[in-house]
């Protein structure tokens, strides 16, 4: 399906030469959620099979609810606020809850980013939340994803294990143990992430697990200050976990900004996601401008190409398109940004071995 929204408009404003420039630029996608990145055609196939399968009573999500979410995704979801976004996932999760469906979805996501004449990226760190379903344990879930990822080799694709803000101690312990075990077995597990509804949970609960992950040689990335409602106290707590990278970091106050600048922590920037979730009103006032001015490390990322109908090439087009559609950066500036993403890969960071 063609992309739509701000990234599509930016792409239309570029010359064919500029588009080729972006397509051939070596770049790393470091912030893509598996279940938010499934191509709509594949999700539609999975939905058709789901609707035609088992009687309704055994289904976690009704056929009508599945149809409604597929329609929304096809037409383009309109979000009044970021919390609306998380309502999409029960239906998507119902469609990826068996090993074979999850394998198909993962294969399609990897192919979307890494195959073709001009792959979207040179290297992908795909992230996903280990999920227990009637058909899979969390370890089996991750093994299914890794089974697909392995085909590309660690120089092209690696896995980040996401911890959802709604998880409790028991599930966190299980996720951490499995992530460490898989890494010790030589699987390309390179990091852990904190994600999920930005207003859920108490982040202090997560400290010991992120400490333990770091000790095990895993990179740490945290969704942080994604909404205006995230309190400063929480942002400072998360920064005290000493993360290697940060997701979004949209609402850092002066104190937090100072810490991030001093540590030179890479920020994963998801332009379309922020605009469509309405945490940033337009590209022209996105916090990326501050980081570009300071030469602060950033990585341009897609977040969830399924609901946001974007692509990594589209996100780079937002950098290059003339204002007000984009930021009007030169080729040299865009190249420098792409290089930063490559330098911020967990596989290449000191202390994190694949
Ligand atoms: C926070 C997000 C997110 O892990 O099941 N997720 N968490 N902020 C965002 N910004 C828009 N986008 C996605 O992929 C889906 C999960 O990723 C997280 C949510 O927890 C969502 O359930 P996986 O593969």
Automatic annotation (TrEMBL):
Catalysed reaction equations from the record: N(6)-methyl-AMP + H2O + H(+) = IMP + methylamine
GO molecular function terms attached to this record: adenosine deaminase activity; metal ion binding
Required cofactor(s): Zn(2+)
A biological process from GO: adenosine catabolic process
Record InterPro entries: A_deaminase_dom, Ado/ade_deaminase, Metal_Hydrolase
Classification via Pfam families: A_deaminase
Key words, A-Z: Hydrolase, Metal-binding, Nucleotide metabolism, Zinc
Claim: ATP-binding is one of the keywords in the record: no
All copies of domain Adenosine deaminase, residue ranges: 26-348
SUPFAM superfamilies reported in the protein's UniProt record: Metallo-dependent hydrolases
Recorded superkingdom: Eukaryota
Family statement drawn from the similarity comment of this UniProt entry: Belongs to the metallo-dependent hydrolases superfamily. Adenosine and AMP deaminases family.
Protein's name in the database: Metallo-dependent hydrolase
């Amino acid at each position: 399906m063609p992309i739509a929204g701000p990234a599509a408009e930016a792409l239309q404003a570029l010359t064919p030469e500029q588009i080729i420039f972006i397509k051939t630029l070596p770049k790393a996608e470091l912030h893509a959620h598996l279940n938010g990145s499934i191509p709509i055609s594949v999700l539609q196939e999975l939905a058709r099979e789901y609707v035609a399968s088992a009687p309704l009573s055994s289904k976690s999500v009704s056929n009508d609810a599945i149809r409604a979410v597929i329609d929304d995704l096809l037409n383009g979801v309109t979000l009044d606020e970021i919390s609306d976004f998380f309502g999409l996932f029960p239906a998507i999760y119902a469609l990826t809850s068996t090993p074979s469906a999850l394998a198909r979805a993962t294969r399609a996501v990897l192919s979307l980013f890494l195959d073709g004449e001009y792959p979207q990226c040179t290297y992908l760190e795909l992230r996903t939340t280990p999920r227990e379903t009637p058909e899979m344990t969390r370890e089996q879930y991750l093994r299914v994803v890794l089974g697909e990822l392995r085909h590309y080799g660690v120089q092209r694709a690696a896995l980040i294990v996401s911890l959802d803000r709604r998880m409790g101690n028991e599930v966190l312990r299980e996720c951490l143990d499995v992530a460490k075990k898989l890494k010790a077995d030589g699987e390309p597990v390179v990091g852990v992430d904190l994600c999920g509804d930005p207003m859920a949970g108490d982040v202090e609960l997560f400290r010991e697990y992120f400490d333990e992950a770091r000790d095990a040689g895993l990179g740490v990335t945290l969704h942080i200050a994604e909404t205006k409602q995230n309190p400063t106290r929480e942002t400072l707590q998360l920064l005290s976990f000493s993360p290697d990278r940060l997701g979004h970091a949209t609402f850092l106050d002066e104190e937090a900004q100072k810490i991030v600048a001093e540590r030179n922590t890479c920020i994963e920037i998801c332009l379309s996601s922020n605009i469509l979730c309405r945490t940033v009103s337009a590209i022209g006032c996105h916090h990326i401008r501050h980081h570009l001015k300071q030469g602060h490390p950033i990585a341009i990322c897609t977040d969830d190409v399924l609901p946001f109908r974007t692509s990594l090439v589209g996100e780079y087009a937002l950098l290059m398109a003339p204002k007000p559609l984009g930021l009007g950066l030169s080729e040299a500036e865009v190249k420098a940004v792409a290089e930063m993403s490559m330098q911020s890969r967990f596989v290449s960071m000191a202390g994190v071995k694949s």
